[in-house]
Amino acid sequence: MASIITATTTSGLTQSADNSGVLQLASGTGNLVTVPSVTGTAMVSGNMPAFSAYMSADQTPTANTWTKVTFNTEEYDTASYFDATTNYRFTPLIAGYYQINCMLSAQPGANTNDIGLYKNGSLFKFQRVLGASNFIELVINYIMYFNGTTDYAEMYFRSNTNAGYINGTSTYSTFSGCLLRTA
């Protein structure tokens, strides 16, 4: 058996029995939301982790070496899963699928420039720009799974010859993510 919970202007909230097997939330004029059987964690917009961070200053990476980008300033971090002080990484404690985004603006002065999305300390995905000598924009947007305990994500940059610098402002170089759905 299930229940229909209805909000009315005369009686307030009322509950009635139903044989549909679902919970229905209704107004006096009709159904608003039907909630089917849920297994695991039911997420609502108020408890879905999200973060956005940026660099507070330019960063000069080592030439021809993957260098971790120091996103050291948070715009927001709804669940405190982003570390902007030591590791510059996102470690969500809710298992699920997350949209991860990174944008870097760099003055590389080199022929090959890469942005790398690292998962658990290893290169996971990357994007390459070839033949650029002026400012370049490197972007990664990817949906990835996190186990909710030990998985984490970081961003790295590599320029093949001249290190140049990464433009460290909230407008040009950002790292963000949010939970799309639980596992």
Can you describe what's shown?
The chain is mostly beta strands and 183 residues long. It folds into 2 domains: 2-35, no CATH class; 45-182, Jelly Rolls, CATH 2.60.120.40. Helix content is 0%, strand content 54%. The protein has no helices and 16 strands. The chain has strands at residues 2-8, 12-18, 23-27, 30-35, 50-54, 67-68, 73-77, 82-83, 89-90, 96-107, 112-119, 122-130, 136-146, 153-159, 165-166, 174-182. Strands 5, 7, 10, 13, 15 and 16 form a 6-stranded antiparallel β-sheet that branches. A 4-stranded mixed β-sheet has the order 2-1-3-4, with no helix packed on it. Strands 6-14-11-12 form a 4-stranded antiparallel β-sheet, with no helix packed on it. Strand 1 and strand 2 form a beta hairpin. The radius of gyration is 23 Å and the shape is elongated.
